[in-house]
């Protein structure tokens, strides 16, 4: 099936409510544009085309086309279905057959979506809860989403000729510099979506030190409003225990170490937790709508000199800064976003607050060009 025939089928499955909820609206025009942006032209997978040099006096005789993997193995996590939907759309757009290794708990949203596919696309997909040696041997490319331990274990199965796209441990933060009431509303939404379980979910918001504690109270109000309108998913015993432990630890610190910690919590349930912490060091929350509010380090202030402040900013955030995925910014400004990008070079995406969980179709997940990273090229001439 040629690309021009696949695109309308893909555009149709992208109108499913689950897909729209997770990825937003994706049209046939978007899919064609995506191919042009990454591969140079929409039919790059179907035919050879000349490579054009800037020097018109030496036209190239070389022609090239993109070659997609015939089989892609997707190993997806159970945190959120978002990444699994994205990974499958990329494979289908390239025309690759897919084996999807589901988590032990399953991924109901993904399997429900696949069940609605037309036969032309459904026949390109296999889902499994158990990988066989044949699955590993047949794969030309492997896309893995999971913990760093999972990624390390997958490396043991790979051959040198297989393309590998790993998405390991990541977390996100927000930087808020003014307009705090509006920021609290946006921050509550970014934190609460998907129960804060994905790599795009913020674990902390950073504010000017004089504003951080007051913002935590504003955020608590908005977390309560959001939870009332969008009740979070039920927690298992382990998740509930982790939240209770976090709250009790914070209460102890607040009672014994003056002015360093303060706790706001949902009344009578575990729906949300907001913690003001006077330390700037980034630490993992226990997810499930538990969020820290911290003072912004001097190195990340708008007045900082980027050359001098980069190491200072990373040192202040601590070792978890190495795993940054997305930094959401409010108010958003392109120049300020570029400066933050320089100060936090491990973060591959800087976006407006409120959009942390809704990346563009064209985004580079963990820095990978999602289509270009999977293809190889054939040349003639």
Extended strand count: 15
CATH topology of the largest domain: Aldehyde Dehydrogenase, Chain A, domain 2
Q: Helical segment tally? A: 13
In round numbers, the mean pLDDT is 93
Determine the strand fraction and express it as a percent band.
15-25%
Give the biggest beta sheet. Answer: 7 strands, mixed
Widest beta sheet: strand line-up = 10-11-12-9-8-13-14
CATH architecture of the largest domain: 3-Layer(aba) Sandwich
- General shape: globular
* Helix/strand order, N-terminal first: HHHEEEHEHHEHEHEEHEHHEEEHEHEE
How much is the radius of gyration in Å?
23 Å
What's the quaternary structure here? single chain
Distance between the termini: 26 Å
Text of the CATH class of the largest domain: Alpha Beta
* CATH fourth-tier homologous superfamily of the largest domain: Aldehyde Dehydrogenase, Chain A, domain 2
Q: Assign the structural class, choosing from mainly alpha, mainly beta, alpha/beta, alpha+beta, or little secondary structure.
A: alpha/beta
**Domain count:** 2
- Enumerate the spans where pLDDT stays under 50 for 5 or more consecutive residues: none
């Amino acid at each position: 099936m040629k690309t021009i025939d696949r695109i309308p089928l893909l555009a149709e499955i992208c109108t499913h409510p689950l897909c729209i909820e997770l990825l937003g609206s994706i049209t046939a025009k978007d899919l064609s544009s995506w191919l042009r942006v990454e591969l140079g032209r929409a039919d790059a997978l179907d035919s050879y085309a000349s490579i054009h040099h800037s020097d018109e006096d030496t036209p190239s005789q070389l022609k090239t086309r993109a070659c997609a993997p015939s089989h892609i193995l997707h190993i997806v996590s159970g945190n959120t279905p978002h990444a699994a939907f994205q990974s499958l759309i990329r494979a289908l757009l390239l025309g690759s057959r897919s084996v999807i290794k589901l988590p032990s708990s399953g991924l109901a949203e993904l399997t429900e979506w696949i069940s609605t596919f037309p036969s032309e696309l459904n026949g390109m997909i296999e889902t499994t809860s158990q990988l066989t040696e044949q699955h590993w041997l047949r794969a030309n490319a492997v896309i893995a989403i999971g913990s760093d331990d999972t990624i390390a274990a997958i490396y043991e199965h790979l051959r040198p000729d297989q393309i590998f796209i790993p998405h390991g441990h990541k977390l996100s933060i927000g930087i808020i510099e003014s307009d705090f009431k509006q920021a609290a509303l946006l921050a509550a939404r970014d934190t609460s979506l998907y129960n804060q379980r994905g790599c795009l979910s913020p674990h902390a918001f950073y504010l000017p030190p004089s504003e951080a504690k007051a913002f935590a109270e504003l955020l608590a109000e908005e977390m309560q409003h959001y939870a009332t309108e969008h009740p979070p998913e039920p927690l298992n015993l382990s998740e509930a225990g982790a939240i209770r432990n976090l709250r009790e630890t914070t209460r102890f610190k607040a009672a014994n170490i003056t002015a360093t910690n303060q706790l706001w919590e949902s009344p009578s349930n575990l729906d949300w937790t907001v913690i003001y912490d006077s330390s700037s060091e980034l630490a993992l929350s226990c997810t499930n709508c538990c969020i820290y509010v911290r003072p912004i380090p001097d190195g990340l202030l708008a007045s900082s000199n980027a050359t001098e402040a980069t190491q200072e900013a990373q040192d202040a955030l601590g070792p978890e800064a190495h795993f940054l995925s997305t930094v959401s910014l409010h108010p958003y400004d392109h120049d300020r976003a570029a400066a933050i990008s320089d100060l936090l070079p491990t973060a591959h995406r800087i976006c407006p607050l409120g959009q942390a969980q809704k990346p563009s179709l064209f985004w580079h997940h963990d820095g990978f060009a999602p289509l270009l990273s999977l293809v190889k090229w054939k040349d003639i001439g």
